[in-house]
Amino acid sequence: MGEVNDGMLSPFQSLPEGCKSHIIFYTSIQDACSASLISKEFNSASKSDTVWGKFLPPDLKEIISNLVPWLSSKTKKELYRLLCHFSNPIDKGILINKGNRRFWLTKCSKKCYMLSAWELSIHKKEDPECWKWYELSGSRFSEVAELQRVDILDIRVKMPARSLSLKTNYGAYLVFKTNEYSYGLKTVAKASVSFAATAGTSGLSEPMEGDSVYLKIPTDVHYLTPTDEDDPRYRGWEPDLQRRFVLVPRPEHEIDGRVPRERNDGWQEIMLGEFFNDEGVGDVEIKISEILDWKKGLILEGIELRPKEEA
Predict the structure, then answer these.
(1) What is the pTM of this model?
(2) DSSP structure class, residue 54
(3) What is the band of 202 on the pLDDT scale with cuts at 50, 70, 90?
């Protein structure tokens, strides 16, 4: 058989564009990205909406319904990159629900949300003596809520399970900061994540059942001795009735509950609970409550829902 001359097409080149895209459709995200490097034919086919539509949620238009005109100008690949790739964690995802919610995808196309403080049900939320709302640099939303002073801290929200990815184990995380004047946040609170009951609600005057969590790491009083004074851990001691003492963070293995951890975006988070979203039926109810002490100084950004295996 003679050589193929320059005017003849290779078998792959002769395939219609739709067939090439259909072949790439059955590959992974990584393969679809790599396909563009093989040849110009692959490059064109790998950019098609047929390929990248597979990696986007089927209900994407419903999720970002208020952005439909803007959505129509984007290719499916551009949308995927917008929802999955971000250099700054503060810019993660896109704002939806009138700017009160952020939505993004993991690299495996699992749905993630952050619900702003304004979307949450907060006890005495609109009382300015209890909560102050203001713009804060470094927040993903137009406003955060700062706790002024309350005796009952009760934050909860319901999320339709159908809005989340199916067959996925999710974690729910409270995202917050505390200011230098905070108090009452080292008392144990109760947090729970569950599928909402069909009837009945728990009263705010009764302790809520759930996992033990702390919004600030509990501390223990340590009275200084002369040998302690040069220990850098104990700098900043305060006099108290002729005694010297410091508040030392309690070791985590001695704390009977979960404690906050630092995030890479300048905020803290604490896991409120986890759940498996099987068929997307019902509502997921997320709660955190503490009713024993007066509290102040919590700066609340919102609640984040993301798959645990990709946390």
Answers:
(1) 0.80
(2) T
(3) very low
